[in-house]
Amino acid sequence: MKTTEIEQWGLIPYAEAWDRQKVLFDELVEAKRNGVEYKNRIIFCQHPHVYTLGKHGKESNMLVGQEQLLGMHAELFHIDRGGDITYHGPGQWVCYPILNLEDFHLGLKDYLHLLEEAVIRVCASYGVEASRVKGATGVWLDTGTCRERKICAMGVKSSHFVTMHGLALNVNTDLKYFGYINPCGFIGKGVTSLAAELGHDIPMEEVRERLQKELLALL
After folding, report:
1. Which helix (H) or strand (E) holds 158?
2. Given the DSSP bridges, would you call strands 50-53 and 75-78 parallel, antiparallel or unpaired?
3. Catalytic residue selected from 45, 95, 123, 184
4. Distance of CA 11 to CAs 8, 24, 149, 162, 214, Å?
5. Full-prediction pTM beyond 0.85?
6. Span between the terminal Cα atoms of the chain, in Å
7. How does pLDDT run along the chain (219 residues), one tens digit per residue?
8. How far apart are CA 83 and CA 62, in angstroms?
9. Distance (Å, rounded) from C-alpha 190 to C-alpha 207?
10. What is the spatial distance between Cα 34 and Cα 8, in angstroms, rounded to a whole number?
11. Coil, helix or strand for 130?
12. Using CA atoms, how far apart are residues 177 and 203, in angstroms rounded to an integer?
């Protein structure tokens, strides 16, 4: 099995992170094709206020126009992952694994399940019970009730069993920004964060370390 390296990109504009991901993704695909050495990576970062719309997402799930976005100091990107629309911003850990799934004997469905499981375990470490919703990726609280709400969104691209994009875990996120979209295309479902559930901010690095530990343990 190949080693997996951890990278931290800090607070980085979305466009820059996307470009860097694409370079690393293409390099890994090319290395596989040519049978040369490569690195699997798990990247952690945060973004300034930004909305991303997946390739099959609906424009109507963005509830404000360009002028309002500018006033909010936010951007909108149409990107090449699965899933619909989501928000990224400070106080949220975004994790971009760029992996050759064949190294880990994973199919895409199992890989998504693994990402969800890592987040579920992190939530449990803070006493927050989280789980899955049938037919919807990501991690949710109070599933099957009228209070069902999402704490972690996911959207992945996979080609030649190589992945990019990933997950976004709300830690100390300003949740008002989710009010300007139908998050992940859902209407009438809530969004939450670890801070909202616990009633206080959580050290960001502590959460990152726990998520990193769980991901590496599951891979």
Report:
1. strand 149-159
2. parallel
3. 184
4. 9, 19, 26, 25, 22
5. yes
6. 10
7. 467 999 999 999 999 999 999 999 999 999 999 999 999 999 999 999 999 998 888 888 889 888 999 999 999 989 888 778 899 999 999 999 999 999 999 999 999 999 999 999 999 999 999 999 988 889 999 998 989 999 999 999 999 999 999 999 999 999 999 998 887 667 667 899 999 999 999 999 999 999 999 999 999
8. 14
9. 22
10. 28
11. coil
12. 21
Cα atoms in the 13 Å half-sphere on the side-chain side of 195: 15
**Owner of token pair 């080693």:** 3
45 is catalytic: no
Q: Which residues of 16-44 are buried (b: 16+ CB within 10 A; e: fewer)?
A: ebbebbeebbeebbeebeeeeebbbbbbb
> Which is nearest to 76 in space by CA: 96, 98, 54, 95?
54
**Predicted local confidence at residue 81, as pLDDT:** 87
Q: Which two tokens stand for residue 113?
A: 């399940």
